[in-house]
Amino acid sequence: MDALDPDDPQWVGPYRLEGRLGEGGMGSVFLGTSPGGRQVAVKLIRRELAAAPQFRERFAREVEAARRVGGFHTAQVVDADPEAASPWLVTAFIPGPTLHDVVTSDGALAPDAVLRLGAGLAEGLAAIHACGLVHRDLKPGNVILAPDGPRIIDFGIARAVDASSLTATGTVIGTYSYMSPEQIRADRAGAPSDVFSLGSVLAFAATGRGPFDAPTLIEVVQRILDQPPVLDGVEGGDGEGAGRLRTLLSECLAKDPGARPPVGDLPARFAGRPSSPSSLPSPSSPSSEAPVDPRVPVRDHTVLLAAQQPRLATVTAPTGPRTPRMTAPRPSPRAGTRVECPGGRSSSPVWASRRRPPRGP
Fold first, then answer.
1. Sorted alphabetically, which keywords does the UniProt record give (predicted)?
2. How many domains does the chain have?
3. Annotated binding site, which residues?
């Protein structure tokens, strides 16, 4: 954590800011303290984004949808104010390193550990999808290895970005190593796109590198579009576990979205148990019809792609911290285990009835 900059606010709503956790294209993330003394993550949106006419409405809708996901597999949304001069979102602070940091410092995980990680992340994605959301920016830096299991973070406000002045018609920007082929082509990307990203994240965990890594961004994109994943290094542990992991990764990384396994089947398959559909209704299982987020800046190298062309048009390499990507998709009858949205359906948003406490001195 870095110290606050001189221009940073001391307070956001009733939350006192303690330091900087990161900064991205949408704004800054701070470590804060709630009035009750709990640590929280405070995301403060840039004012110029909030000036776009549709931004606040979509920001409010997506924050409320993210709140319904709950905190079992994610960082629980606890507060937000889409009407502030600089809109803000507060989530529970999840202590723990990211998957990216652990693999970078300690090396690849054993197959059995990756299988357990895959089961936990697939559960999280199933819960997210059951609430009518698609993450679309799942990557090692967005997975926190908390003491009680992996948490998926940084999601819930991409539709607000879609409506902002940053939208670029006919282009898409994303974290290239973990994008699905349909995202690169700017086709409609839904739940199967998250499954592809899950496969890429787990391949990184198992080998220490992305399954489509290459010397240049153009080569990475071409490999994602046209070549099979490189899974060399998925080894160690018992032979059965390594073989099952390779099979699951290959299925998740299929080029055709329809050939990838339903996310609801994956927790049991990663755990080595037979999967069977649940009797629980799925309020809004996301489909492959969900529109791709046309513009989301990220911390690492990014790719700028022509929306209707499967080839790389321009490559840029900005530096700025990661930002999330998620959208509300259309319902779909896609097969697989059906999961209830953990938070249910709420008629009033988290900020609707909040009486604002006085700000700090």
1. ATP-binding, Kinase, Nucleotide-binding, Serine/threonine-protein kinase, Transferase
2. 1
3. 43
